[in-house]
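Appendix B. Worked example

We walk through a single record from start to finish. Start with the input: the chain for Cobalamin biosynthesis protein CobD, Actinomadura hallensis, length 298.
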Amino acid sequence: MRVSGEGLVLGVVLDALLGDPRRWHPVAGFGRVASRVERDLYADSRWRGVVYAGVLVGGAGAAGVALERVARGRLGHALVTAGVTWAVLGGTSLGREGLLMARALERGDLEAARERLPHLCARDPRGLDAEGLARAVVESVAENTSDASVAPLFWGAVAGIPGLMMYRAVNTLDAMVGYRSPRYERFGWAAARLDDVANWAPARITGGLVVLCSGREAWRVLRRDGARHPSPNAGRCEAAFAGALGVRLGGVNRYGGRVERRPEMGDGRAPEAGDVRRAVRLSAAVTFAAAAVIWSLR
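Next comes the structure step. The output line below is what the pipeline stores for this chain.
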Protein backbone atom coordinates (compact mmCIF):
# COMPACT_ATOMS: atom_id res chain seq x y z
CA MET A 1 0.00 0.00 0.00
CA ARG A 2 1.23 3.49 -0.87
CA VAL A 3 0.27 6.33 1.47
CA SER A 4 0.41 9.98 0.42
CA GLY A 5 0.34 12.34 3.39
CA GLU A 6 0.33 15.28 1.01
CA GLY A 7 -2.69 13.86 -0.80
CA LEU A 8 -4.61 13.33 2.44
CA VAL A 9 -3.95 16.90 3.59
CA LEU A 10 -4.86 18.31 0.17
CA GLY A 11 -8.12 16.33 0.37
CA VAL A 12 -8.89 18.02 3.70
CA VAL A 13 -8.31 21.41 2.09
CA LEU A 14 -10.56 20.51 -0.84
CA ASP A 15 -13.32 19.39 1.52
CA ALA A 16 -13.01 22.63 3.50
CA LEU A 17 -13.25 24.71 0.32
CA LEU A 18 -15.83 22.73 -1.63
CA GLY A 19 -17.76 20.44 0.71
CA ASP A 20 -19.35 17.33 -0.76
CA PRO A 21 -19.82 17.10 -4.55
CA ARG A 22 -23.34 18.31 -5.32
CA ARG A 23 -23.87 15.85 -8.18
CA TRP A 24 -22.53 12.40 -8.95
CA HIS A 25 -21.28 11.89 -5.39
CA PRO A 26 -19.30 8.60 -5.34
CA VAL A 27 -20.60 7.69 -1.88
CA ALA A 28 -24.18 8.13 -3.05
CA GLY A 29 -23.37 5.92 -6.04
CA PHE A 30 -21.99 3.28 -3.71
CA GLY A 31 -25.20 3.51 -1.68
CA ARG A 32 -27.28 2.81 -4.78
CA VAL A 33 -25.16 -0.23 -5.60
CA ALA A 34 -25.48 -1.42 -2.01
CA SER A 35 -29.27 -1.10 -2.19
CA ARG A 36 -29.39 -3.24 -5.33
CA VAL A 37 -27.14 -5.89 -3.76
CA GLU A 38 -29.34 -5.87 -0.67
CA ARG A 39 -32.41 -6.64 -2.78
CA ASP A 40 -30.63 -9.67 -4.23
CA LEU A 41 -29.02 -10.98 -1.02
CA TYR A 42 -31.38 -9.99 1.78
CA ALA A 43 -32.60 -12.63 4.19
CA ASP A 44 -33.16 -12.56 7.94
CA SER A 45 -29.74 -14.15 8.41
CA ARG A 46 -26.40 -13.11 9.81
CA TRP A 47 -24.58 -15.15 7.20
CA ARG A 48 -26.34 -13.32 4.37
CA GLY A 49 -25.34 -10.08 6.06
CA VAL A 50 -21.71 -11.23 6.29
CA VAL A 51 -21.71 -11.99 2.54
CA TYR A 52 -23.38 -8.64 1.80
CA ALA A 53 -20.81 -6.65 3.79
CA GLY A 54 -17.89 -8.72 2.51
CA VAL A 55 -18.80 -8.31 -1.16
CA LEU A 56 -19.31 -4.55 -0.92
CA VAL A 57 -16.38 -3.70 1.35
CA GLY A 58 -14.12 -6.05 -0.60
CA GLY A 59 -15.26 -4.46 -3.85
CA ALA A 60 -14.45 -0.99 -2.50
CA GLY A 61 -11.00 -2.19 -1.50
CA ALA A 62 -10.39 -3.72 -4.94
CA ALA A 63 -11.41 -0.45 -6.59
CA GLY A 64 -8.95 1.36 -4.32
CA VAL A 65 -6.13 -0.98 -5.31
CA ALA A 66 -6.95 -0.38 -8.99
CA LEU A 67 -6.84 3.39 -8.48
CA GLU A 68 -3.45 3.11 -6.78
CA ARG A 69 -2.10 1.12 -9.73
CA VAL A 70 -3.17 3.70 -12.31
CA ALA A 71 -1.78 6.64 -10.30
CA ARG A 72 1.61 7.41 -11.87
CA GLY A 73 4.47 8.83 -9.82
CA ARG A 74 4.41 10.67 -6.52
CA LEU A 75 2.45 13.63 -7.88
CA GLY A 76 -0.13 11.46 -9.61
CA HIS A 77 -0.61 9.37 -6.50
CA ALA A 78 -0.96 12.47 -4.35
CA LEU A 79 -3.60 13.93 -6.67
CA VAL A 80 -5.62 10.71 -6.81
CA THR A 81 -5.38 10.40 -3.03
CA ALA A 82 -6.57 14.00 -2.68
CA GLY A 83 -9.57 13.34 -4.92
CA VAL A 84 -10.57 10.19 -3.06
CA THR A 85 -10.05 11.89 0.31
CA TRP A 86 -12.29 14.76 -0.76
CA ALA A 87 -14.95 12.28 -1.89
CA VAL A 88 -15.00 10.29 1.37
CA LEU A 89 -14.66 13.15 3.87
CA GLY A 90 -17.83 14.73 5.19
CA GLY A 91 -16.62 17.23 7.77
CA THR A 92 -17.61 20.39 5.90
CA SER A 93 -21.08 19.10 5.07
CA LEU A 94 -21.47 18.04 8.71
CA GLY A 95 -20.61 21.57 9.81
CA ARG A 96 -23.03 23.12 7.32
CA GLU A 97 -25.88 20.95 8.58
CA GLY A 98 -24.99 21.88 12.15
CA LEU A 99 -25.07 25.59 11.31
CA LEU A 100 -28.45 25.26 9.57
CA MET A 101 -29.79 23.71 12.77
CA ALA A 102 -28.19 26.45 14.87
CA ARG A 103 -29.84 29.20 12.79
CA ALA A 104 -33.26 27.55 13.05
CA LEU A 105 -32.91 27.22 16.82
CA GLU A 106 -31.65 30.78 17.23
CA ARG A 107 -34.73 32.19 15.50
CA GLY A 108 -37.01 29.88 17.49
CA ASP A 109 -38.21 27.93 14.45
CA LEU A 110 -38.55 24.51 16.06
CA GLU A 111 -40.55 23.06 13.18
CA ALA A 112 -37.78 23.86 10.72
CA ALA A 113 -35.23 22.38 13.10
CA ARG A 114 -37.30 19.21 13.50
CA GLU A 115 -37.60 18.84 9.73
CA ARG A 116 -33.83 19.25 9.33
CA LEU A 117 -32.70 16.93 12.13
CA PRO A 118 -32.98 13.70 10.05
CA HIS A 119 -30.16 15.05 7.87
CA LEU A 120 -27.88 14.57 10.89
CA CYS A 121 -29.19 11.59 12.83
CA ALA A 122 -31.91 8.95 13.01
CA ARG A 123 -33.45 10.32 16.21
CA ASP A 124 -37.21 10.95 16.14
CA PRO A 125 -37.55 14.77 16.14
CA ARG A 126 -41.25 14.82 16.96
CA GLY A 127 -41.85 16.36 20.36
CA LEU A 128 -38.26 17.50 20.87
CA ASP A 129 -37.98 20.96 22.40
CA ALA A 130 -35.14 23.43 21.75
CA GLU A 131 -32.86 21.80 24.33
CA GLY A 132 -33.56 18.31 22.99
CA LEU A 133 -32.84 19.41 19.44
CA ALA A 134 -29.63 21.19 20.46
CA ARG A 135 -28.47 18.11 22.37
CA ALA A 136 -29.20 15.85 19.40
CA VAL A 137 -27.15 18.09 17.10
CA VAL A 138 -24.18 18.43 19.46
CA GLU A 139 -24.10 14.66 19.99
CA SER A 140 -24.33 14.02 16.26
CA VAL A 141 -21.56 16.53 15.47
CA ALA A 142 -19.37 14.94 18.14
CA GLU A 143 -19.84 11.37 16.93
CA ASN A 144 -19.61 12.27 13.26
CA THR A 145 -16.41 14.22 13.72
CA SER A 146 -14.85 10.78 14.00
CA ASP A 147 -16.98 9.09 11.33
CA ALA A 148 -16.82 11.87 8.74
CA SER A 149 -13.29 13.20 9.26
CA VAL A 150 -10.87 11.51 11.63
CA ALA A 151 -11.65 7.89 10.77
CA PRO A 152 -11.22 8.20 6.98
CA LEU A 153 -7.99 10.14 7.50
CA PHE A 154 -6.76 7.47 9.93
CA TRP A 155 -7.47 4.63 7.50
CA GLY A 156 -6.02 6.63 4.63
CA ALA A 157 -2.84 7.09 6.63
CA VAL A 158 -2.75 3.37 7.48
CA ALA A 159 -3.76 1.82 4.15
CA GLY A 160 -3.77 4.52 1.49
CA ILE A 161 -6.53 4.79 -1.11
CA PRO A 162 -7.95 1.28 -0.40
CA GLY A 163 -8.15 2.20 3.28
CA LEU A 164 -10.09 5.37 2.50
CA MET A 165 -12.55 3.57 0.26
CA MET A 166 -13.05 0.52 2.47
CA TYR A 167 -13.67 2.68 5.53
CA ARG A 168 -16.28 4.75 3.76
CA ALA A 169 -17.94 1.57 2.49
CA VAL A 170 -18.09 0.15 6.02
CA ASN A 171 -19.50 3.36 7.46
CA THR A 172 -22.07 3.73 4.68
CA LEU A 173 -23.30 0.16 5.13
CA ASP A 174 -23.64 0.72 8.87
CA ALA A 175 -25.78 3.79 8.16
CA MET A 176 -27.92 1.78 5.74
CA VAL A 177 -28.45 -1.54 7.53
CA GLY A 178 -26.71 -1.36 10.92
CA TYR A 179 -29.91 -0.87 12.90
CA ARG A 180 -31.52 -2.92 15.65
CA SER A 181 -34.79 -3.17 13.78
CA PRO A 182 -36.82 -6.27 12.90
CA ARG A 183 -35.50 -6.16 9.32
CA TYR A 184 -31.83 -5.50 10.06
CA GLU A 185 -31.04 -6.88 13.51
CA ARG A 186 -29.56 -10.04 11.96
CA PHE A 187 -28.82 -9.00 8.38
CA GLY A 188 -27.11 -5.77 9.47
CA TRP A 189 -25.12 -7.38 12.28
CA ALA A 190 -21.89 -7.77 10.27
CA ALA A 191 -21.98 -4.18 8.96
CA ALA A 192 -22.55 -2.82 12.45
CA ARG A 193 -19.73 -4.88 13.97
CA LEU A 194 -17.35 -3.93 11.15
CA ASP A 195 -18.15 -0.29 11.81
CA ASP A 196 -17.42 -0.75 15.52
CA VAL A 197 -14.03 -2.26 14.73
CA ALA A 198 -13.16 0.32 12.07
CA ASN A 199 -13.98 3.20 14.40
CA TRP A 200 -12.38 1.89 17.60
CA ALA A 201 -9.04 3.64 17.16
CA PRO A 202 -10.36 6.75 15.35
CA ALA A 203 -12.93 7.46 18.07
CA ARG A 204 -10.22 7.45 20.72
CA ILE A 205 -7.97 9.57 18.54
CA THR A 206 -10.87 12.00 18.11
CA GLY A 207 -11.27 12.22 21.87
CA GLY A 208 -7.55 12.92 22.22
CA LEU A 209 -7.65 15.61 19.54
CA VAL A 210 -10.61 17.29 21.26
CA VAL A 211 -8.50 17.41 24.42
CA LEU A 212 -5.59 18.82 22.42
CA CYS A 213 -7.82 21.53 20.95
CA SER A 214 -9.71 22.46 24.13
CA GLY A 215 -7.92 21.47 27.33
CA ARG A 216 -8.11 19.75 30.68
CA GLU A 217 -11.87 19.60 31.23
CA ALA A 218 -12.37 17.58 28.06
CA TRP A 219 -9.76 15.10 29.33
CA ARG A 220 -11.43 14.82 32.73
CA VAL A 221 -14.89 14.11 31.31
CA LEU A 222 -13.50 11.80 28.63
CA ARG A 223 -11.72 9.67 31.23
CA ARG A 224 -14.71 9.58 33.58
CA ASP A 225 -17.64 9.23 31.16
CA GLY A 226 -16.27 7.97 27.85
CA ALA A 227 -16.95 4.30 28.58
CA ARG A 228 -20.48 4.85 29.93
CA HIS A 229 -22.11 5.12 26.48
CA PRO A 230 -23.64 1.90 25.07
CA SER A 231 -21.62 2.39 21.88
CA PRO A 232 -17.97 1.35 22.23
CA ASN A 233 -16.92 4.41 20.23
CA ALA A 234 -19.49 7.23 20.25
CA GLY A 235 -19.13 7.79 23.99
CA ARG A 236 -15.47 8.76 23.64
CA CYS A 237 -16.33 11.53 21.18
CA GLU A 238 -19.44 12.73 23.00
CA ALA A 239 -17.80 12.78 26.43
CA ALA A 240 -14.83 14.78 25.12
CA PHE A 241 -17.16 17.29 23.45
CA ALA A 242 -19.29 17.56 26.60
CA GLY A 243 -16.22 18.44 28.65
CA ALA A 244 -14.83 20.82 26.03
CA LEU A 245 -18.14 22.69 25.64
CA GLY A 246 -19.11 22.60 29.32
CA VAL A 247 -22.47 20.96 28.59
CA ARG A 248 -24.31 17.81 29.64
CA LEU A 249 -25.06 15.19 26.99
CA GLY A 250 -26.98 11.92 27.13
CA GLY A 251 -30.49 11.12 28.36
CA VAL A 252 -33.60 9.71 26.72
CA ASN A 253 -33.52 9.24 22.93
CA ARG A 254 -36.40 8.08 20.74
CA TYR A 255 -35.92 6.27 17.44
CA GLY A 256 -39.34 5.68 15.96
CA GLY A 257 -41.07 3.36 18.39
CA ARG A 258 -37.85 2.50 20.29
CA VAL A 259 -36.67 4.41 23.37
CA GLU A 260 -33.08 4.39 24.63
CA ARG A 261 -31.96 5.80 27.97
CA ARG A 262 -28.30 6.74 27.87
CA PRO A 263 -26.11 7.78 30.80
CA GLU A 264 -25.38 11.48 31.10
CA MET A 265 -21.92 12.76 30.23
CA GLY A 266 -20.47 16.03 31.48
CA ASP A 267 -21.36 18.27 34.40
CA GLY A 268 -22.66 21.39 32.66
CA ARG A 269 -26.04 22.68 31.59
CA ALA A 270 -28.18 21.36 28.76
CA PRO A 271 -26.94 22.42 25.30
CA GLU A 272 -28.33 25.55 23.64
CA ALA A 273 -28.27 26.89 20.09
CA GLY A 274 -24.96 28.68 20.70
CA ASP A 275 -23.38 25.40 21.75
CA VAL A 276 -24.21 23.93 18.34
CA ARG A 277 -22.05 26.63 16.72
CA ARG A 278 -19.27 25.94 19.21
CA ALA A 279 -19.49 22.21 18.48
CA VAL A 280 -19.17 22.89 14.73
CA ARG A 281 -16.08 25.04 15.32
CA LEU A 282 -14.54 22.38 17.55
CA SER A 283 -15.25 19.69 14.96
CA ALA A 284 -13.46 21.73 12.29
CA ALA A 285 -10.51 22.31 14.63
CA VAL A 286 -10.23 18.58 15.30
CA THR A 287 -10.26 17.83 11.56
CA PHE A 288 -7.45 20.29 10.89
CA ALA A 289 -5.53 18.97 13.90
CA ALA A 290 -5.76 15.48 12.40
CA ALA A 291 -4.47 16.84 9.08
CA ALA A 292 -1.61 18.59 10.89
CA VAL A 293 -0.60 15.33 12.58
CA ILE A 294 -0.61 13.53 9.22
CA TRP A 295 1.48 16.34 7.67
CA SER A 296 4.02 16.13 10.49
CA LEU A 297 4.36 12.34 10.01
CA ARG A 298 4.49 12.29 6.20
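Two observations about the output. The CA atoms of residues 67 and 249 lie 42 Å apart. DSSP finds eleven helices and two strands in the chain.
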